[in-house]
Design a protein that fits this description.
454 residues; alpha/beta; Aminopeptidase; Aminopeptidase i, Domain 2; 2 domains; globular
């Protein structure tokens, strides 16, 4: 059966729109659910029974979501097909007590989230996103830095004229993590129409008063807030040929969005096996917590699906379903950078404009943390990609003894399911501005679509 796909240009434009909205896992969740509901998906709690073709989703804590199109054969009997990615990205989180004053300026006190190079976050325009929860349970959404006329925040650095001592230090030492704090207020005045109005209060108190006036929250309300510092600015094309896209959070929204669109495309077809996607949180800090893949969210959701099909969800049925499932672990990989050829495993490196890369295993020198996919499942995926004429490549994450990395595949493989890492190559991974190829984005979407509808 010949599949109909969106065009490359329309797909990439929609992805860039999504990426500009999904600056945090919560915003990604909200926009993903909006897109699902617009295509007829309903919350799993609304169903008492499930029949083939039903479109369902289940979310948790406004960060992690699983969606599925129910197949003709029961989940307990044949399992599921899963495309699993994550929507969190490296960033700076505001600490529970986030405000402090130094030298007449007020700073956000921040904690690093995920693996970053600290120097890459210096002297960049930064935005503030997040949620503040008052004690009565009401919530205030904060989004500052990306709308026209918004202020931005910034971490200052020493000028080169006075940076001799700094230049002698190692990369990870010349800027302390505790100083990775953006300035958010710098005067002992309130500014009114460009006219400074003197105030006897300290700058910190002026900021607190501003927050109360603007957001109707007190400083104590910041104790129950989830506020994140991310790069300001929308995704842009790179190069005169506009063949590359730069933006914040490609890792891993480029893959999770591709899975989302692939599932939406599969919603109108009748498949034997239930097709599903996972868009999870906390991958960048080890998949921990209640919304990470080391939680029980995935097993619980599979149990809920089985209960609505079988009218029972005994543990053995869930275990059998998980073991009979298959998954593409939808996470990015490193693309070979011509500036740094020494880290590439020659002949086994991923290249831009060559399609998504399958990685039979991840990990470092000793494959630590890898699920190491079976050759049988690799062959099955090869057959599916070839049948749909998807452009893809096989690759490793750099040379041994140069580093390594992992994905959520290891946490899914523990159920006994067949799992293969399969994601978009990129430059600048974990930098504030990452780079991917438009062609690779599109072929990643086609690959996931082919797998879910095979």
């Amino acid at each position: 059966m010949k599949r109909k796909y969106r065009s490359l240009e329309s797909y990439c434009e929609e992805y860039m729109r999504y990426l500009g909205i999904a600056k945090t896992a919560r915003r990604s969740y909200a926009e993903s659910v909006r897109l699902l509901r617009a295509k007829g998906f309903r919350e799993l709690s609304e169903f008492t029974t499930l029949k083939p073709g039903d479109r369902v989703y289940r979310g948790y804590e406004d960060r992690t979501v699983m969606a599925a199109v129910i197949g003709r054969r029961p989940v307990a009997t044949v399992g599921l097909k899963v495309v699993g990615g994550h929507t969190d990205a490296p960033r700076l989180d505001l600490k529970p007590k986030p405000l402090y004053e130094k030298g007449g300026c007020v700073y956000f006190d921040c904690h690093i989230y995920g693996g970053i190079k600290k120097y890459q976050w210096l002297t960049l325009p930064l935005a503030l996103y997040g949620t503040i929860v008052r004690t009565d349970g009401s919530k205030v959404q904060v989004a500052v830095g990306d709308n026209p006329g918004d202020p931005v925040f910034m971490i200052s650095d020493i000028l080169p004229h006075l940076g001799k001592d700094q230049a002698q230090k190692k990369r990870d030492e010349f800027f302390p993590a505790e100083d990775l704090d953006p300035v958010c207020w710098s005067t002992g005045e309130t500014m009114d129409g460009g006219r400074g109005v003197k105030d006897a209060k300290a700058p910190r108190n002026l900021l607190v008063r501003y927050l109360k006036r603007t957001y109707k929250v007190s400083e104590e309300d910041l104790l129950s807030a989830e506020l994140e510092i991310v790069p300001a600015g929308m995704p842009r094309y790179v190069g005169f040929d506009r063949a590359l896209i730069t933006g914040y959070g490609h890792d891993d929204r480029v893959c999770s969005f591709a899975g989302l669109q692939a599932l939406i495309d599969a919603a109108g077809e009748s498949s034997a096996v239930t097709a599903s996607i996972l868009m999870c949180d906390k991958e960048e800090i080890g998949s921990m917590g209640s919304t990470g893949m080391q939680s029980s969210f995935f097993e619980n959701t599979v149990a809920e699906l089985i209960e609505r099909q079988e009218r029972r969800a005994r543990d053995i049925l869930v275990r059998r379903a998980l073991e009979r499932s298959t998954m593409l672990s939808a996470d990015v990989t490193a693309a070979a950078d011509p500036h740094f050829p020494d880290v590439d495993s020659t002949g086994n490196e991923a290249r831009l404009h060559k399609g998504p890369a399958a990685s039979k295993y991840t990990g470092g020198t000793t494959k630590g943390g890898a699920s190491d996919c079976s050759p049988e499942f690799v062959a099955e995926i090869r057959r599916i990609m070839d049948a749909e004429k998807v452009t893809w490549q096989m690759a490793e994450l750099g040379k041994m003894e140069k580093g390594g990395g992992g994905t959520i595949s290891q946490y899914m493989a523990r159920f006994g399911m067949k799992v293969l890492d399969f994601g978009t190559p990129m430059w600048n991974m974990h930098a504030p501005w990452e780079i991917v190829s438009k062609f690779d984005c599109y072929q990643t979407y086609r690959a996931y679509s082919a797998y879910l509808r095979s």
